[in-house]
Amino acid sequence: MRPQDWDGLTIEQEDHLLDWVEHYIAKIEEARAKR
Predict the structure, then answer these.
(1) How confident is the model at residue 32 (pLDDT cuts 50, 70, 90)?
(2) Nearest-5° angle of CA 23, CA 15, CA 27?
(3) Contact, 19 vs 27, CB < 8 A?
(4) What separation in angstroms does the CA of 33 have from each of 9, 11, 25, 29?
(5) pLDDT of 35 higher than 70
């Protein structure tokens, strides 16, 4: 996603995106811990 695309997001979409990113990062850290 390019930075200029962020301007078109609503607050709700932004919150959803941040939740998704946090979830994704947690999954990666979980996978790393299992190694």
Answers:
(1) very high
(2) 5
(3) no
(4) 34, 33, 12, 6
(5) yes
Domain edges within the chain: 10-34
CA distance 32 to 35: 5
Rounded to whole angstroms, the Cα distance separating 14 from 33 reads 29
DSSP designation for 11: H
Q: How far is CA 12 from CA 17, 31, 33, in A?
A: 9, 29, 32
Distance of alpha carbon 6 from alpha carbon 3, whole angstroms? 6
